[in-house]
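User: Please run a holo structure prediction.
Assistant: Happy to. Please share the sequence and the ligand.
User: Here you go; the ligand is 4'-phosphopantetheine.
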Amino acid sequence: MAEILAIYPGSFDPITNGHLDLIERGSQLFSRLIVAVLTNLEKNPLFTVAERVEMLQESTHSIPNVSVDTFSGLLVDYARQKHAHALLRGIRAFTDYEYELQMALTNRKLAPDVETVFLMPALAYTYVSSRLVREIFQLGGSVAGMVPALVEERLHQKVQELEERS
Ligand code: PNS
């Protein structure tokens, strides 16, 4: 069978169990999977790119065909540079669909040779998002079960860091 390289792009601020579930599924479908963190985020991130990359690396180190990288600029330019065949994205609910469809069709217009593949995470993670994880944590709630344990630890450190700074 042909070698298929896929890219799983995102902000991953921070990686959630939903992302991890998708990475595991993607690693079984594709020969190689690169998890690519966008560096030029418009949003105000909680974690630096280096911190996000580190958490991704630690969370995926046991999956041999998965690597972590960063990219800036257009995703399709990065995909071409890596000679990737596919882009992997997760769809949790109907609400994700419109945004994902727009992005997939835009990317197809820009690079017709790169296919977007959508996977659904396990049902248990369909409500989990990085945005909600950040919000719950900043408001003092528990994110147990929503993120890998090492991310929970990093979130605790981050809150202390932010408190010390203010
Ligand atoms: O996890 P996110 O924040 O939903 O990921 C969004 C991401 C990084 C996949 C998307 O913003 C992206 O690909 N940005 C790169 C710029 C680009 O290529 N834009 C045109 C395609 S819509």
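The pocket of 4'-phosphopantetheine is lined by residues 9-11, 38, 74-75, 103, 106-107 (CB under 6 Å).
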